[in-house]
Design goal:
The strands form 3 sheets. Strands 5-2-1-6-7-8 form a 6-stranded parallel β-sheet, with helices on both faces. The chain has helices spanning about 20-30, 60-65, 80-90, 135-150, 165-175, 195-210, 240-250, 265, 295-315; strands at about 10-15, 35-40, 45-50, 55, 60, 70-75, 95-100, 125-130, 150-160, 215-220, 230-235, 255, 270-280, 285-295. It is α/β, with parallel strands linked by helices.
Length: about 325
Amino acid sequence: MLRMPESPSIGVVGATGAVGTVTLELLARRGFDNVHALASARSKGKAVEFGTRDLVVEEASPETLASGALDLCFFSVGTTTSLELVPHAVEGGATVIDKSDAYRLADGIPLVVAGVNDAAIGADHRIVANPNCSAMQLTCALRPLEDAAGLARVRLATYQSMSGKGDEGIEMLRAIAPAEGDLAMDWDFDGEEFSEESKLRAETRKILDLPDLPLSATCVRVPVLVGHAQAVWVETKTPHSPAEARAVLAAAPHLELSDAVMPGEVAGTDTVHVGRVRRDPTAENGLVLWIVNDNLRKGAALNAVQIAETLIARGLSGASEPLAPVADPLR
């Protein structure tokens, strides 16, 4: 088994993108120093901010990633690029925290929300998957309710910001006139569900280790820059009053009780906000929740950094066996 240094050499692949930029900000703020910014060849040589200094962007080539210079590597790139480059980083001895959907539902690879299922990370894991930002905030609220009363059924509607679509979504929003914004469902459609809806169900089940949890979602993109919101209807297995639910939610990691908070209010914050906890009169043991989160922070970059901090605290960087091939989930 390999051991991770107390001060590991860290690579941020996709350092010039929306999530990569936040990752660099968080790493600097949390005291990491030996950090390398990597991106595509067209960004090579650019400068990116890292605390009080700049980093020069290196090309995230297979050779650079496999060189053995990195102990820990964050990937903030698309699925195809992750499938191409992650194996090279692992070959070079790095542990990878991947933020795309390339490995989220792959067998044997943990899908982790810090504070929810940290125990899923084993000493032999060379890749840890960072979940979809919507599954992230949802499971932060569902985990304590499952522990307290069991989950019988979950239904939700999401209101997802344009930054969830990456740099493309941010530029699209900036190009829209203020009075011309509209809702969208801009994911792949199989004739019944959008891919975001089926992913949300599958990832939530995997994170909570509840493979048969009934979960139905309607996902919508809204003309908001940062911050995802969710209206959630939960049915518990045993009676659980709104007051009891508020108590367990208030005590849970990375959660804050905030009634009727809006995305603009949570932008730049590091916790998942949950409020409007009330009885659902249409269901036995029913509760209704309102969950809001900065999708670029806890919804993506911060969660990945928290996973890294867990790995470093344990002193583990995985096993030395080579990475087995993983099928492209888009095929």
